[in-house]
Amino acid sequence: MSTEEPSADEEDEDEDIQYFVRIGQTDLDGTKSVERALTDMNGVGRRVARIIADRAAVDRRDVLGALEEDKIDEIVELVEGYAEEVPEWLTNHQRDFFTGETTHETGNDLDMSRRQDINRMKMIDSYRGVRHKRGQKVRGQRTKSTGRTEGTIGVNIEAIKEQQAEEEAEDE
């Protein structure tokens, strides 16, 4: 093992890292690679992160916090204007019910728009809305043997023993 101290260049690199990069309402970890850090954001997956890194002319394996300030600003602008840069099929909120616009939601906006869409389906009693109300699977998955939430199937011995213990306590 070597007990060498880090060189002055390595210390300077550590000092130049931004540990938090803010995009929208989300703080991203500046010590991760560009692709990995962007995927920590709601609404940004690996494909979107890779597209954003390519458009910003940044290597996706570079450390996000070590990038120059103008490159970070360019990445922030690309994330916020992603829907205008890519085809409609690459966005996550196509043809909004009220406005008809195609947008790409990120962060809290994605959660809020998804919740509104589900509530609208529940209110109009569409098939998907009814499935959401009942807590059943919505997208055509099998339900015969999977997705059970009630616990054990068949005889629940523990419940029977508890019931017998209660009845014995009442008899005494």
UniProtKB/TrEMBL annotation:
Q: Which UniProt keywords apply?
A: Ribonucleoprotein, Ribosomal protein, RNA-binding, rRNA-binding
Q: Which family does it belong to?
A: Belongs to the universal ribosomal protein uS13 family.
SUPFAM superfamilies hit by this protein: S13-like H2TH domain (SSF46946)
Q: Which GO terms describe its molecular function?
A: rRNA binding; structural constituent of ribosome
Q: Which InterPro entries match?
A: Rbsml_uS13_C, Ribosomal_uS13, Ribosomal_uS13-like_H2TH, Ribosomal_uS13_archaeal, Ribosomal_uS13_CS
Q: Where is the composition biased (Basic residues)?
A: 129-142
Pfam families per record: Ribosomal_S13
Q: Report residue spans for region: Disordered.
A: 129-172
UniProt function note: Located at the top of the head of the 30S subunit, it contacts several helices of the 16S rRNA. In the 70S ribosome it contacts the 23S rRNA (bridge B1a) and protein L5 of the 50S subunit (bridge B1b), connecting the 2 subunits; these bridges are implicated in subunit movement.
GO cellular component annotations of the record: cytosol; small ribosomal subunit
Q: Which GO terms describe its biological process?
A: translation
> Partners and quaternary state?
Part of the 30S ribosomal subunit. Forms a loose heterodimer with protein S19. Forms two bridges to the 50S subunit in the 70S ribosome.
Name the UniProt record assigns to this protein: Small ribosomal subunit protein uS13
State which gene encodes it: rps13
